[in-house]
Amino acid sequence: MNILIAPAVFTHEYSSMALLSRQLIPALKQAGHQVSVCAPMPLSEEASFFPSPYCREPFHLFTLDYGRSAEEYLYAAGMLRKGFLREDLKYLEQALQKTEPDLVLNLGRPAMQILAEKNQIPVWSAVHSSLYRTRPFPRECLDDLNAILKDLKLDQVLHLSDLYVHSPKRVAFGPVQMQPFSDDSNLIRCGAVLPAQESVQLSKKLCIYFTETHTSAHKLHRIIREAFLGAPYEVYVWYPGCRPSKEENLHMLSELRQQNLAGSFVLIHDGTSFLFNTAMALGIPQAIISDGSYERSWNAAAGHRYGFAQVLQEDELAIGTLYETYRIVCSDDRYREKAADAAEPMHALNGLNPLLQAVNTL
Questions:
Q1: CB within 10 Å: which end of the chain, N or C, has fewer?
Q2: Are 18 and 7 in contact (CB under 8 A)?
């Protein structure tokens, strides 16, 4: 089967949907499918590459409260602006014409949902529970999107989630405890993208990974160095703009190394779904640096509610607050116990197998 993956990529190859794509590609290839990717940069040598425009890092726009809507967040990222939507539609149509896919996996691109309805293309869409959360947002967030839908003679929408009504299949990552949906009739529920390595023993190792942070690389380096340099354990760090180096116990990495997560006693990260789910599958307690974005704030709240995560808001990030958040997690055994409990439903989902099995039945 010929499959096109269309991820929403924010500025670099380690944003959450880019990481997900880089795990989907080999799994689909191993199952015997031909895979293409329409993204701002090549994500794998195993997949044909078709370019697309970058999404910018979202800025605070109308509200500064935590947990703002998907509509406002994506409008702030430019993904719901008329210029970006038209450009994205153009690139996606070019990729569709050249690949003629049997199936499209849409990972967060509103333009792909528009094309799916316009051209009756079989598109399976990755969704997150926070997309369906009812929160107020300025109506102008959807004005450009609805103008394009009107031009194409398609039904306009009141909420971004309305775009996904016609998806024959929706794909969610995570158990029902973290990813509840009021209607799961056409939902494929998958587990962690990376297989949990249950045989790996707990080690004196801390991982700090930021993939979609708004904090500058210079500030992150200063905070992390002051908080953890000289600690009696190894610390592995990656963030956008991270310069590789090693100073005593502090390892600044050139890339996000997922293999370092296994055996870590805590993961400090910014709440994106890829890292959230991977840490959950590995039974790792989490210190989550959240912000007002819909997905990160949802994951942070879910981890805190379940008892395996402590949350710090990104605008409060400093040397003292970061270390105190980490100290609370690693000094209380209840976080590790709850993390082990949360790993069980993730394991039961059997990784990507539910999606692969559904694709193979087409």
A1: C
A2: yes
Inform me whether the pLDDT recorded for 141 exceeds 60.
yes
Looking at residue 62, its pLDDT comes to: 47
Flag whether pLDDT at 231 surpasses 60: yes
| Domain closes at, from 116, 143, 167 | 167
CB 133 within 8 A of CB 68: no
H-type helices in the chain, by residue range? 16-30, 70-76, 82-99, 110-119, 143-151, 217-228, 273-281, 294-306, 319-331, 333-348, 353-360
CA-based Rg of the chain, rounded to a whole angstrom? 20
Torsion from C-alpha of 142, 147, 151, 155, nearest 10 degrees: 40
Does residue 182 contact residue 341 with C-beta atoms inside 8 Å?
A: no
C-alpha 217/C-alpha 238 separation (Å) is 10
What CATH number is associated with residue 152?
3.40.50.2000
**Type of residue at 8:** A
Q: How confident is the model at residue 250 (pLDDT cuts 50, 70, 90)?
A: very high
Query: Of 106, 137, 167, which closes a domain?
Result: 167
Q: For residues 155 and 232, state if they share a domain.
A: no
Q: Is the pLDDT of residue 160 over 80?
A: yes
Over 50: is that where the pLDDT of 61 sits?
no
Angstrom CA distances, 101 to 3, 105, 121, 275, stand at 5, 10, 9, 29
Domain with 28, as residue range(s), is: 2-167
297 contacts 271 by C-beta, under 8 angstroms:
yes
Six-digit token pair at 351? 């990784």
Strand, helix or coil at 31? coil
The torsion angles phi and psi of 53, rounded to 5 degrees, stand at -75, 155
The more confidently predicted of residues 226 and 293 is 226
Whether residues 112 and 215 share a domain: the answer is no
Give the pTM: 0.92
**What counts of helices (H) and strands (E) characterise the chain?**
11, 14
Q: Listing from the earlier edge strand, what are the strands of the sheet with 266-269?
A: 245-247, 250-252, 234-238, 205-209, 266-269, 286-290, 309-313
Which one-letter DSSP state was computed for residue 9?
Answer: -
